[in-house]
């Protein structure tokens, strides 16, 4: 693990900000006065660039109506290609292997349905028990559609401690009856980053198709899909990528599978050249765009164009370097100043094994989250005892992290959390 030098005190935090090569990016985001936004792992902060892109598309709709599809050399009719080419760079994929469409859950359905052709000998889908629930809902649904019982056909690798997944256990579970393996790149609660290259290679040794959920890694962790070589992947765009609430999602299909028939088809997956001939026979686009279905929602896509400008200027390597450093600084301060108040760290410490957020644990986590909001800090709670804190590299400063620690200490020291209800809100 890389050795870093940290010190207590606000002066050290300010010195770190002065040395931060990404500090200037903060002015590109819509930072709210007096608020400390630590929830970029759940919904990224709005950027001025994203707003400009969205407003531009709205203006084009107002001016051109249906002719919006033909302006700027048909850019918006082919927006999924334009954006897909740029997002592909974030994961080290070929441009034609990435498309932008629908949402994460639907894209899981698209990936699984393409590859799930079970036989008597090989019919199981391998998953873990810590992944985000929507992944399991989609997989269970696909299994049922083929007439199987998820209790039999969905093979679950159990976590030993409720925090982390044992990669050896995953590989051991890759038995001859497993057809597909689907896993998270980064666990949404504990921020564990799996060794995707190793697990993918082991799956392929056994003839198993493997897909990855990048929702909690894309935009925070650089991926090299040329080296990892997965079969497919999905992700959302509203967390670290900051493309807006419910923003359109992404989909990767390895080029070796371009000849496959998508499990779900629609007219936007048709070749551009024959799409408006409106035939009733599907003429599949020969790239990842062949997995498109319906007409693209431009207003859901436009903010992504703006935020990608920022990502391309900053560079994923610099973003990852600061993310690892500022989360390590946060963990240092937690251990130095918060352990006496019952706080502990529930995520891996090694750089190679963690994503972009810190998993802060406390038996009163839920009420502490409510108290944080009373103090104008936006955190994130996950059952049973996790406060997720994401000092996103592009817009969170070291000084803000230092101030956060003081607020966390005061909430427990003064027992301010005791004034908060245990009752869960609609959006936790």
Automatic annotation (TrEMBL):
Family: Belongs to the kynureninase family.
Gene that produces this protein: kynU
Reactions catalysed, as given in the entry: 3-hydroxy-L-kynurenine + H2O = 3-hydroxyanthranilate + L-alanine + H(+); L-kynurenine + H2O = anthranilate + L-alanine + H(+)
Pathway(s): Cofactor biosynthesis; NAD(+) biosynthesis; quinolinate from L-kynurenine: step 2/3; Amino-acid degradation; L-kynurenine degradation; L-alanine and anthranilate from L-kynurenine: step 1/1
GO biological process per UniProt: anthranilate metabolic process; L-kynurenine catabolic process; L-tryptophan catabolic process to kynurenine; NAD+ biosynthetic process; quinolinate biosynthetic process
Entry function: Catalyzes the cleavage of L-kynurenine (L-Kyn) and L-3-hydroxykynurenine (L-3OHKyn) into anthranilic acid (AA) and 3-hydroxyanthranilic acid (3-OHAA), respectively.
EC number per UniProt: 3.7.1.3
Subunit structure: Homodimer.
Protein name, as recorded: Kynureninase
Top-level taxon in the UniProt lineage: Bacteria
GO cellular component: cytoplasm
Positions annotated to bind pyridoxal 5'-phosphate: 104-105, 132-135, 213, 216, 238, 267, 295
Taxonomic classification: Bacteria, Bacillati, Bacillota, Bacilli, Bacillales
